[in-house]
Amino acid sequence: MTLTLISDTHFRYNQLQLQGGDMLIHAGDLCDHGTEGEVIAFLKWFGEQPYKHKIFIAGNHD
Length: 62
Prior knowledge:
Layout: E1 3-6, E2 21-26, H1 36-48, E3 51-56
Parallel strand pairs: 1-2, 2-3
């Protein structure tokens, strides 16, 4: 199983060039300011990533 683990992207996740695989895990702090718009934009991006399984764990900035 191929795992990709990212965290602390602080609304810069769209600058990543992920290769795809079996599982993508974002381990918190996706937001800069914790706004609803930031979360919605992230979830759209996260859903489009080429991974069979995805896990998102909220951080203290989320």
